[in-house]
Amino acid sequence: MGSDGLKIGVIGAGAWGTALARLLASSGNSVQLWCREPETAKNILQKHVNTSFLPDILLPESLGASTDLLEIVRNSRILAAAPPSHLTREIAKKIRPEITAEHILLILSKGIEQHSLALMSEIFAEELDNLPKLAVLSGPTFAREVALDLPSAAVLACADETAGSLLQKCFHSDHFRIYRSTDLVGVQLGGSIKNVIAIASGIADGMQLGLNARAALICRGVAEMSRLGTAMGGSAETFMGMSGIGDLVLTATGNLSRNHNLGEKLGQGFSLEDCLPSGGEVAEGVRNAVSIQELAERHKIEMPICNAVYQVLHQGVSCTQALQKLLERDRPDEEMYVPDLATIPD
To answer: Can you tell me which residues bind NAD(+) (predicted)?
Structure first.
């Protein structure tokens, strides 16, 4: 259901940004979609289709599109930011001149910035001087299925009750169910770590290790996600929900998952260069693997699956070697381990 025709700006005309812009416009909101490429904006305005990412899905005629980012920010109360995670800081710097304390900024990107190891919310808070109210949307949502109005659900994390309630009202619909949370850290970490575990699942499938191995990887992936997430201040319950196990199961098994598809090709023996998506799409797990490896080292958290993926992607270890290292680890004593935060150094 729309929220009294609110003016909403969606930043990023990839598949996810376009799908949510379509959903919002279809609900009666005034929506402008920022496109980096003039040709994309032209196609949306004239043909009502995003030929680059969702070429066979018709968009509402009411959906606007523009390459003028600052104008969209200036004329919108709610902003939904969906750039690739590595471009988040660049976007934040660009929109800073028009951001006010009246804005609500919903983060749609999933990732952790390399080197700084900042979450997307931390980047926006830093670059925008904590002016807008920040929120995060994450969960098991393939953009194409949302754009096709297939039943989907996600979690919206926001510390501000009024802003969170308004965003839920905007995005919730008969076919897109929105749950609420206040755990911005946990929701973001779940959405980032699952990309790396999805690559591991794809590798297992590519090596034809069987469904037992895939299920075990997913289960142990949740354990790794929970260990790091709670060490960084997230709630253990978050990783059992939409943005944790929900998003992980989808991304680690679905044939629309770029991360799983990349891993599957790696498992079949292709080089990383040959596995990377084409056409402007991004497999976030490739970059996330570096940041998660560094976060695990910083917080002294054991994450063997994520470490194995990091070694395959960035240290030249073969999939077979990585698998052997995992199998040679000491016998486990307990199934799930969440660290005692009191024992972790600041």
So the answer is: 12-17, 143, 258
> Residue 104, SS3?
strand
Rounded Cα distance between 38 and 42, Å, is 6
| Residue 2: per-residue pLDDT | 45
pLDDT digits over 177-204, tens only? 999 999 999 999 999 999 999 999 999 9
194 carries an active-site annotation: yes
pTM over 0.85: yes
> Is 65 annotated to bind ligand?
no
Catalytic residue among 7, 194, 265, 300: 194
Q: Which pLDDT belongs to residue 254?
A: 85
Convert 312-332 to b/e letters by CB count within 10 Å (16 or more is b). Answer: bbeeebebeebbeeeeeeeee
Please state, for a pLDDT cut of 90, what percent of the chain lies above it: 87
Domains and CATH numbers, the chain: 7-182 (3.40.50.720), 192-337 (1.10.1040.10)
Q: Is 307 annotated as a binding residue?
A: no
Contact 285, 264 (CB under 8 A): no
pLDDT band of 72, cuts 50, 70, 90: very high
Q: Are 189 and 232 in contact (CB under 8 A)?
A: yes
Distance CA 43, CA 41 (A): 6
Is 255 annotated in a binding site? The answer is: no
CA-CA distances (angstroms) from residue 334 to 186, 217, 314, 338? 23, 16, 30, 11
